Amino acid sequence: MNRTLNELVAEARESGTLEGLPQDHFIDGQYRPGTTEEHLETFDPGTGKPFARFAAGGESDIDRAVVAANRALREDWGKATPAQRSRVLTAIAQEVREHADRLAVVESLDSGKRLVEAQADVRGVIRTFEYYAGAADKIQGDSLPLGADYVGFTVEEPVGVAAQIIPWNYPVGTAARGIAPALAAGCAVVAKPAEQTPLSALLLAELAWRAGLPRGVLNVVTGTGAAAGAALVSHPDVHHITFTGSVATGQHVMRSAADNITRVLLELGGKSPVAVLADCDVEAALDGVLGAIYENAGQICSAGSRLIIERGLHDMFMDRLLQRIQKLRLGHGLANPDVGPVNSAQHLSRIDQHVSAAAGRGNLLLTGGKTVRPDSAPGGWFYAPTVIAAESAGDPVVQEEIFGPVLVVQKADDLDEVIALANGTDYALVAGIYTSDISKAYRFARQVDAGQVYINEYFAGGIEVPFGGNRKSGFGREKGLEGIKSYCKLKSVVAKI
User: Is the separation of the CB atoms in 417 and 82 below 8 Å?
Assistant: First the structure.
C-alpha cells in the first residue's frame, strides 16, 4: 500500500533518505547491476549530504541497454499497433499517478527543488503521458496528388532507438517530455540521467514496466557524462539523440553524433528576457518576474533572467520588486520555502563567481549576491535571491547564462529599444512581455527571436505547446505534436497503376 505524502516527507526529514531507492541500472525490464561494482553518491542539496548510491555505468552498460532496445523493436514493441501503444502510455500515466507522492519526494531530495515544484513536475509527467497516449494512434502521412496513373502517399515510421540525455534541473519532467513522444511514435529508449539526479528516471522506467511496457523498450543507465553519456551518444546503433544541457556539452554531442550521422535534437541554454512596459498590469508583472527567475532557484533553461523595463516605470517597479525579493524565505525543499537550494556545491561556487565578477566590473548589486546558510538548513547549498543592474548590454552578466537565482536588470526608453535589448544575446529560447497593448505584444512576439513568447504570463502553456530554441539555444522542438516528429522518419511510396 502506498504511504501518504506526510509519511514520506517525515521519513525523508528524519532519516535523510527513503527506503527502497534503486541502486542499479534499469535494463531489459529489470534492475541490473553494472558490469563493475563501482557506485556513485547522490546528494540532497538541502543538507549537502549524500542520501543514496547508484551504479556508475560505462560503455558496456550502455551497450547492453542499446542491444535490449534494438531487440525490443524487432519483437513486441515493433509489432505493437498504435492503439496498443496508446493504451500502454495511458497505463503509465495511471501508474505514475498512483505513485506520485513518492516520486515527488524523491525528486525534491535529489534535485533540491521545493516539494510543491516537484509535485507540479510529477503532475506534468502524468499529463505528458496522457497527451501522447492520445496522439499515438493519430500519427499519419499524406496522400500525394500525382495524377490518374499513380498512387502516392507518405508514411511516418519510428526512427528506432532514441537516446535521452536528461539534465539535473528538471529530471523527471524532462525525461517524460522525451520518453513519452518517443514511445508514442514506436521508438525504444535508452536514457542517461544526470549524475546529480539519477533516481527519478530509474523509478519512471520501473513504473512504465509495471504498466505493461515490454522489456527493453525503456532502459536507464546511470553514471557520469564522461563515461556513460559519451558512450551513449557515440553508439552506432542509436538512431536519434535528444540532449538537454549546456552549449559546450551540446557541441560535444553534435560532434559525436556526426561520426554515425545520428539525428540530434538540442535544447541548450538561455538568457531569456522579460519585458515590462509602462502600461502593464503591475501586480501581474511583479508576480511574473518573481516566478520567472526564482522558481527552482533560477535553475531553468528558460528562466526569465533578464528584466527589461521601460524607464518611466523603472523606479516604482524596482522598489516594489526588491521589497518582495528581500522577504523570500530560503530552506530545504521538503519544507516548501519560497526558494530552495541550488543543485550542487560546484554550481553554488559557479554562481557566486559570476556575481562577484559582475560586481567587480562595476555592475550595481541591488540585493543578494552571496551564499547563505538558512537556520533550518545550515548544511545546504543556498544562494541569496539576487538582482544586478547591468552596466552595459555587452557585459557578461547580460550575455552569459548564470543558471541561478540572479536577475539582471536593463532599462529601455521605448518598445524599439526593448526589442533590440531582447535580441541582444546569442541565446533565443524564450521571451516574455507584460503590456496592456496587444499590438505592442504582437509586435514584440514577431520581432524577438525566440522559440516561444509569453504574453502577460511567463511559463504559460503546457505539454501542448512546442518548446525549443534558436541560435545557441539549440534546435528542434519538444512538446506538442511537433515533439512526435523528432521520433519519426518520413517514407514516401509511389505506385504506377
Answer: no
DSSP state of 74: H
The mean pLDDT value for 175-187 works out to 98
Of the residues 107, 156, 267, 310, which is catalytic?
A: 267
pLDDT per residue as tens digits for the range 401-446: 999 999 999 999 999 999 999 999 999 999 999 999 999 999 999 9
DSSP labels, 81-128: -HHHHHHHHHHHHHHHHHTHHHHHHHHHHHH---HHHHHHHHHHHHHH
What ranges in 151-198 are assigned the alpha helix state H? 171-185
Backbone angles phi, psi at 181, to 5 degrees: -65, -30
Percent with pLDDT over 90 in the chain: 98
H/E run at residue 158: strand 150-158
The domains of the chain are located at 5-268+475-493, 273-462
Catalytic choice (95, 156, 195, 301) = 301
Is residue 384 within 8 Å of 410, Cβ to Cβ?
Answer: no
| Residue 333, C-alpha cell as written in the block | 525543499
37 pLDDT band, cuts 50/70/90, is confident
pLDDT, residue 2, reads 74
Q: Per CATH, which fold does 273-462 belong to? A: Aldehyde Dehydrogenase; Chain A, domain 2 (3.40.309)
* Nearest C-alpha neighbor of 385 from the set 291, 477, 474, 471: 291
The answer to whether the 5-268+475-493 and 273-462 domains have the same CATH topology is no
| Residue whose cell numbers read 510543491 | 116
Helix ranges (H only) for 362-467 are 396-399, 415-422, 438-447
How far is Cα 152 from Cα 150, in angstroms, rounded to an integer? 6
Burial 395-422 (b: 16+ CB within 10 A, else e): bebbbbbbbbbbbbbbbbeebebbbebb
pLDDT tens digits for 77-122?
A: 999 999 999 999 999 999 999 999 999 999 999 999 999 999 999 9
* pLDDT of res. 3: 87
- Three cell numbers at 327? 522577504
Residue 166: closest CA among 484, 480, 478, 491: 478
Cα separations in angstroms, 324 against 242, 304, 364, 408: 38, 17, 19, 16
Please tell us whether the domain made up of 5-268+475-493 is placed in CATH 3.40.50.150.
no
The residue behind cell 516537484 is: 118
pTM of this structure: 0.96
280 a catalytic residue: no
Annotated catalytic residue 488: no
What span, in angstroms and rounded, lies between the C-alpha atoms of 95 and 114?
23
Question: Does residue 1 surpass a pLDDT of 90?
Answer: no
